Amino acid sequence: MTKQASALILEDEPIVAFALEDMLFELGFEEVRLATTLEAAFDYLEARAPDVAVLDVNIRGQRSYGFAEKLSGSGVPFLFATGYGDAEHPEALRATPTLTKPYNQDELKAVLATLTDPQ
Q1: Residue 45 parent element (H or E)
Q2: ∠ at Cα 61 (58, 67), nearest 5°?
């Protein structure tokens, strides 16, 4: 995988978020930002678009699909990381790569490579 400058994590469970943050740093990301609410994620995107994003689907009782669509419209590659798999994604987002929790660093690396490496 090519080295990426920045990643955004949208995750409301601290233990999961910090583990993911560690994995991304170990995979070579120089900057990893964490948003625990949809509002914080939208604010971050307004300030600076990340090179890639990892989104939990359920954030404090809300779905992250609107944020995913904003990322897509901004050209930011992203994946979902959720305990629910891809069964409930809306039709427009069904092709989005999805990691099912729990996942490990090798699985994360493989999915990130599909988003960032030219084919």
Answers
A1: helix 38-47
A2: 50
Q: For 34-88, what is each residue's pLDDT tens digit? A: 999 999 999 999 999 999 999 999 999 999 999 999 999 999 999 999 987 666 7
**Ordered structural domains, the chain, with CATH:** 6-116 (3.40.50.2300)
Terminal-residue alpha carbon distance, the chain: 12
How many DSSP H helices and E strands does the chain contain?
A: 4, 7
Pick from 83, 82, 79: nearest CA to 93:
79
**Could you say which DSSP state residue 92 is in?**
G
Radius of gyration for the chain, computed over Cα atoms and rounded to the nearest angstrom: 13
Return the SS3 of 80: strand
Sign of CA dihedral 4, 103, 40, 53: positive
Query: DSSP class of residue 55?
Result: E
